[in-house]
Amino acid sequence: MARRPIDLGSGGALLDVRAFGRAGVRSLTPKQVRTIALTVRRAPEVVVKVSGGARTLGGVQAHFAYIGREGELGVEFDHGTRVGGKGFEKELVADWDLDLLAHRRQDERSIVGKRRSPKLVHNLIFSMPPGTSPQKVLAAVRRLAVIEFAFQHRYALVLHTDEAHPHVHLVVKAESEQGVRLNIHKATLRHWREQFATHLQELGVAANATERAVRGAIRTPKKDGIYRAAERGMSTHQMQAVRALAEYSPASLRRFVRGKETLQQTRRAVTAGWHAISQQLEETGNHGLAAWINRFVEQMPPPTPDQVQAARRLGARERSPRIDSIDRTR
Q1: SS3 for 86?
Q2: pLDDT along the chain (330 residues), means of 10
Q3: CB contact at 8 A, 274 and 210
């Protein structure tokens, strides 16, 4: 059977605010109005991320042992059963035929030459802020998994409540029962975020899945290691970026200028879009939501390059006034 990659996802944003600014007044769907209301009232944003993926049988078993807390938590399979107990991860490997898949991949690599082994599974995390019902988070992920993967890709999930934010680990077999590989791209994650938020809304949870720029967010996503180090004030990555800019490194200056121009262009487009939506809502009599939008736009923080934000967090502004002058003049 021929094997081909598949890319799940709609590719479009849940609420393309910038399109309203470009195209002028256009009709709003009920779903868009609901998303607008959730956004300007700052409903919690869902988080969906890929936490890795195992390429070996040992890696698969280790990950399942971790998320199943060595068998203490019951892991839910796609056919509805729950499996736990010591050594349950070995049962999963056999049930999913991962041993056969790994051996076949090894043979293919031997024939075509050395290549990096493809992933056997994808490890995903779906989470919500503290205070969200853990059972509703689990129910929303379960619905998403059934719609996206049932009768195609084998999957298993488990709820974790040992941290403040409830989250679900979802493990998906990379190759479907029909021999189709699952490739995860930005559009795929965007689609899953939208579906996760929609399922939570259906369960009565205020949840949203909009772009950062639409919300006026200025902090760009960071890899987990950089993010955690930055939160502790110990990110060498950010320290190096601030130091290079403070020393007028030509490469850093170019990146700074390009980044700031992009931020400003995006903010102008987003603001124009929000104003167009507000005007349309005013014309249709929805004055309350229009007022919420206007306040939301007014409260957006100014677009600020990463280096300036890093300098503030690291306390480098006092040591390097050059960054202040660059930010004001460029």
Answers
A1: coil
A2: 35 70 75 92 94 89 90 85 81 83 58 67 96 97 96 94 94 91 92 95 94 77 49 56 58 71 86 92 94 95 67 49 52
A3: no
- Residue 216 is encoded by which pair of tokens? 């006026």
Alpha carbon distance 133, 158 (integer Å): 15
Which tokens sit at 189?
């994650």
The values of phi and psi at residue 76, to 5°, are -90, 125
Pairing of strands 121-127, 82-83: unpaired
Task: Report the distance separating Cα 42 and Cα 62, nearest Å.
Answer: 38
Q: In this structure, how many other beta carbons lie within 10 angstroms of the beta carbon of residue 143? A: 17
The answer to whether 170 touches 126, Cβ cutoff 8 Å, is yes
Cα 212 to Cα 192: distance, rounded to the nearest angstrom: 16
Residue 99: CB atoms within 10 A of its CB come to: 14
CA nearest to 5, candidates 157, 110, 153: 153
* DSSP states of 254-277: HHHHHHHHHHHHHHHHHHHHHHHH
The DSSP annotation for 162-191 comes to SSSS-EEEEEEESB-TTS-EE---HHHHHH
Gap between the Cα atoms of 235 and 153, Å rounded: 38
The percent of the chain in helix, strand and coil, each rounded to the nearest 5, is 50, 10, 35
Kindly report the backbone phi and psi dihedral angles of residue 215, in degrees, each rounded to the nearest multiple of 5, phi listed first: -85, -5
Q: What is the pLDDT of residue 5?
A: 35
**Which backbone phi and psi does 77 adopt, to 5 degrees?**
-95, 165
85 dihedral zone (left: phi>0; alpha: psi -120 to 50; beta): left
The CA–CA distances, whole Å, from 150 to 98, 120, 142, 173 equal: 18, 18, 10, 11
Which CATH number applies to 44-202?
A: 3.30.930.30
